[in-house]
Design brief:
about 90 residues; mainly alpha; DUF6284
Length: about 90
């Protein structure tokens, strides 16, 4: 009888030094509006799955999509402003 053994360490077995860095946490904090807007969009879509979407459901999904796009735009503009120092070229 042959035994089945794992070849790799467990996925969740991280040493203490593998904690997120301050820069990684700051990046997550900057992206948080996009993440939350995406969660709201998924919530609106899930609500509309169980039934034929009515006008309120369609409006909720449309507004959630607009919030995702606005959050992405703001993040992109903020990132572009940070990465392009020195003014206009």
């Amino acid at each position: 009888m042959s035994h089945i053994v794992t070849v790799q360490d467990a996925v969740t077995a991280f040493p203490d030094s593998m904690e997120p860095t301050k820069a990684e946490l700051d990046a997550i904090e900057q992206e948080m509006p996009v993440i939350l807007a995406g969660v709201d969009l998924v919530d609106a879509q899930i609500i509309a799955l169980d039934r034929t979407p009515n006008e309120v459901d369609k409006r909720r999904i449309r507004r959630a999509r607009n919030r995702v796009l606005a959050a992405r735009r703001e993040l992109a503009n903020r990132t572009a402003a940070v990465s392009l120092p020195g003014g206009a070229a």
